[in-house]
Write a structure and sequence with these properties.
Helices cover 29% and strands 15% of the residues. By secondary structure, it is of the alpha+beta class. The protein folds into two domains: 63 residues, no CATH class; 39 residues, no CATH class.
Length: 104
């Protein structure tokens, strides 16, 4: 195990500011993101994260699914469910996005 300190940053979504917590790296190189940060940043099981190395600093950035970015007119459509066609398109966007992330 390395004695080197690793700074881990998380993309600020306006919900978590100036938060620093300690995590432990397992033998397989895995870490666990603390539950309170996962809840505040809305990181769910299976979501993809980007790791950016800047010098000796690691940044962990959640990759939002395209379907989560929708909603500019949220107030207009409040209490209304999207059509099956829109849901289908969102699922296709998510699949395409996942494919592009894997290829990158």
């Amino acid at each position: 195990m390395s004695d080197k300190f690793i700074n881990v940053g998380i993309l600020d979504k306006g919900k978590v500011k100036n938060t620093m917590q300690t995590v432990t790296v397992t033998a397989k190189g895995q870490i666990t993101i603390p539950a309170d940060l996962r809840r505040k940043l809305e990181i769910a099981e299976g979501e993809r994260l980007m790791i950016v190395c800047e010098g000796e600093i690691l940044k962990i950035i959640p990759i939002p699914k395209l379907s989560k970015l929708a909603g500019a007119d949220k107030a207009i459509f409040k209490q209304k469910k999207p059509s099956k066609e829109i849901e289908k398109i969102r699922k296709e966007w998510d699949k395409d996005f996942e494919k592009r992330v894997k290829e990158a």
